[in-house]
Amino acid sequence: MTAATLLISVFCIGGTFMQLPISWMADRSSYRTGQLVCGLILLLGTLAFPLAD
């Protein structure tokens, strides 16, 4: 139950606070760079999730 609550909280907070940096990056770089950075952030978050316990 705690892990599910943490996951939902991080998802909501990340969705709110990452809108401005992602849109800023999308305006100033190429599509490919934006997708690469977002993919790397997603990968790092996925790898860090087991450490949050």
Q: TL;DR of this structure?
A:
It is elongated and about 40 Å long.
Provide key terms for this protein.
83% helix
Write structural notes for this entry.
With 53 residues, the chain is mostly helical. The protein has a domain at 23-53. Helices cover 83% and strands 0% of the residues. The protein has three helices and no strands. It has helices at residues 2-17, 19-28, 31-48. The longest helix has 18 residues, at 31-48. It is elongated, with a radius of gyration of 13 Å. The termini are close together. The mean pLDDT is 84.
Mean pLDDT: 84
Helix content: over 70%
Q: Given the C-alpha coordinates, what overall shape results?
A: elongated
Low-pLDDT runs = none
Largest sheet: none
The sequence of SSEs as H and E is: HHH
Question: How many angstroms separate the termini?
Answer: 12 Å
What portion of the residues fall into strands of 2 or more residues? under 5%
Distinct helical segment count: 3
How many β strands by DSSP?
0
Structural class: mainly alpha
Write down the Rg.
13 Å
